[in-house]
Amino acid sequence: MSTVVIVGTQWGDEGKGKVVDVLTEKAAVVARYQGGNNAGHTVVIKNEKYVLHLIPSGILHKGKKCIIGNGVVIDPSALIEEMDGLKEQGIDIDDNFLISKSAHVIMPYHTAIERENESRKGNNKIGTTGRGIGPSYTDKVARHGIRMMDLLAPDLFREKLAANLDTVNFLLENLYKAAPLKAEDIYSQYMKYAERLSRYIADTDVIINREMDEGRNVLFEGAQGTLLDIDHGTYPFVTSSNTIAGGACTGLGVGPTRIDKVLGITKAYTTRVGAGPFPTELKDELGEAIRQKGGEFGATTGRPRRCGWLDMLVLRHARRVNGLTGIALTKLDILDGLDTLKICTGYTFEGRTYDDFPKEIDVLHRCEPVYEEMDGWKESTLGIRDFDALPANAKRYIRRIEELMGTEVQIISTGQKRDEIVVLKEQF
Ligand code: IMP
């Protein structure tokens, strides 16, 4: 038995979906541990594109158990839409999909409150995905959240909903000057969702631990990335969950002693969507060229992603807080054809040089990156499957990343498709 956590080492969109898809081949269980339908994992199989927001990408393989853990927040309508979409694409999820009883439910007031909050922030907007993620986690921590199991107890659900709407409608009417929400409308809508989802709701912590006890391989699928972590990211420009590897323990009910490997998914350059500091951002034609070539537009919101050079302070921070055992380097082919590549090795701010990622948001906003330059390569790396077949300068780039980060590159993704990959070290 072996377990591997898949975690993003940057600001999300590192290409986790494809790596999870490839590793699922040898796993029996794939489990999501945090986030919600703010995520967007794209997988291309035989020219068919699948975009998953909530359901683990393992679902694209027959017979794999796919679990949404307690650490995830679930918008039932988005989940049902995703299930229907998969069915239309010929993927039947009925026998192998499970949702934690304890996962919190995103309610219509969460999206309404988020919309109002963001619009009142003006220039200080976080640029959220608008899916109600933050307000839903806020309710969880404030201890008045509604959980999936509450959908199975209609009287209790009605009671909790009424109590929550008391406060929510007061805020909507008096603070935000917005229309109040009607309890009855929400109740009947959510009871319909409950009817559709009840068969999947289970004690997933028991199930996942049993699978491990019986010696099966398990993949823990993270969403977003380390720098969006509520504790270890660029706060307040973060999401509201623990995106780091430790989130797999709290978000699934799995003890830390049961995690064998932590694979950090790392894009060969850096992107960020939404507001917040990004020291190596390229605000020029090159940034635009990378965006176009890399298809750097949000899988969930369609927003253009900000693009920039690889940042070692970000990656070393990710190595530390996740305890990475290796990395999977993705989208290497997007850098083909560049004359020069830059890797950020430090920041300077007010006469001081930083080697470790600073916590202060002001420093991050105003620091200057220190770059190391390397020659690029002209040859195409698209679809290469053998490390030795990579251009010499691409190999140098990879080896330099390993040196500067102190972590082994174990997988290299050289294209969107499943088989466009170099595997240097098996994870299972
Ligand atoms: P929220 O998760 O919708 O609250 O958004 C908070 C921040 O996280 C925003 O900057 C979003 O753009 C960013 N974010 C959330 N989910 C993803 C993701 O899956 N990929 C990249 N950025 C994300």
TrEMBL record:
Substrate binds at residues 299-305. Its EC number is 6.3.4.4. Pfam families: Adenylsucc_synt. It catalyses: IMP + L-aspartate + GTP = N(6)-(1,2-dicarboxyethyl)-AMP + GDP + phosphate + 2 H(+). Pathway: Purine metabolism; AMP biosynthesis via de novo pathway; AMP from IMP: step 1/2. PROSITE patterns: ADENYLOSUCCIN_SYN_1, ADENYLOSUCCIN_SYN_2. Keywords: Cytoplasm, GTP-binding, Ligase, Magnesium, Metal-binding, Nucleotide-binding, Purine biosynthesis. IMP binds at residues 13-16, 38-41, 129, 143, 224, 239, 303. GO terms for molecular function: adenylosuccinate synthase activity; GTP binding; magnesium ion binding. It is an enzyme of class 6 (ligase). It is found in: Cytoplasm. Its cofactor is Mg(2+). Mg(2+) binds at residues 13, 40. Binds 1 Mg(2+) ion per subunit. The keyword Ribonucleoprotein does not apply. Gene3D superfamilies: Adenylosuccinate Synthetase, subunit A, domain 1 (3.40.440.10), Adenylosuccinate Synthetase, subunit A, domain 2 (1.10.300.10), Adenylosuccinate Synthetase, subunit A, domain 3 (3.90.170.10). Homodimer. Plays an important role in the de novo pathway of purine nucleotide biosynthesis. Catalyzes the first committed step in the biosynthesis of AMP from IMP. Belongs to the adenylosuccinate synthetase family. PANTHER family: ADENYLOSUCCINATE SYNTHETASE. This is Adenylosuccinate synthetase. It comes from Candidatus Nitrobium versatile. The lineage of its organism: Bacteria, Pseudomonadati, Nitrospirota, Nitrospiria, Nitrospirales.
